[in-house]
Amino acid sequence: MGEYRPDYVDTVTKYVFIESPSMTPGELALRAYEASEGVLIKETCFGLQVSGEPESVDRLIEEIRTFDPVHIFVKDRGFPPGDPRRCRANLGGARPGYLGHEREFRVLRYITRGLEELDRREEGAEVPEPAPPAREARQKLDIKRLQELIDTEES
Amino acid sequence: MAKVFIYPATSLILSDLVARFGHKPLGAALGIRERIQTAGVDSPPLQITPEEPKRGLKYAAVEVPSGVRGRMAIYGPLIEESEAAIIVTDADLAFGCMGCARTDELILFSLRQKGMPILELKYPTNEEEGIQFVAAVRKFLDSLPKEEGEA
Hints:
The complex is a heterodimer of chains A (155) and B (151).
Chain A: E1 3-4, E2 12-18, H1 25-34, E3 40-43, E4 47-52, H2 54-67, E5 72-77, H3 88-91, H4 98-105, H5 108-121, H6 143-154
Antiparallel strand pairs in A: 2-4, 2-5, 3-4
Chain B: E1 3-7, H1 12-20, E2 24-26, H2 28-36, E3 40-41, H3 51-55, H4 66-81, E4 84-88, H5 98-113, E5 118-121, H6 127-142
Parallel strand pairs in B: 1-2, 1-4, 4-5
Helix pairs in contact in B: 4-5
């Protein structure tokens, strides 16, 4: 094990995802550059990665959200952009964590719909709450079925 | 501004909604960032060093596998710091190896044991559920204190 000297100390990196019918990640990047003021911006297929001092990044994120409030989603990232331990240019295949984003990306349109509707009503109290999920809803494996599986495996 | 632990800890949707409605989401990225930005021994890819399973002893017993204790060294301090939590119970993206699976169980157990406000939800599968999902999250977050010392 060698010595580790980190890059980008005391910075934060955030993902900006855009799922919009009226703005592409490229357009978002162009508008973000205009407001960046020293924050590092990397354009990706799903949006941007922004990296810099926490206050600057927060200010930029606030600005970016105004471009298309219900279609832009933001989350923290642990690694800086292009880090060789995570960047797919070095690893090949999808970046670790991308598949989770891809899974949630499919749900974003429902979240957008929820945000639009709440904005329209302006008062969330009118919306009925979802029933809390049952903890033990999943059926447990029957002991006879387990024995059958074991027998099948052995034969 | 309350600190809200999100589960799955890598969730884009929960992270965004918590920040959007004025609170601080506590997710895996914060723990990873802390390690990535701290100088020390080179231990790629996540800078999880042999020290982490020792730190994890605070959250799991010594006979618990080091994989779980190492992961708990990341999540444990975030759980301690949190004042509320939002849990998505049907998050199939939170699957993983046995270490991840057992850590997830321990995270959920620790959150529920803490006695803080918790919102449990399922991912929406249509627009109506999407509206209910966002409304439930907003109502929950509105009930949390926005300022320091607020009840």
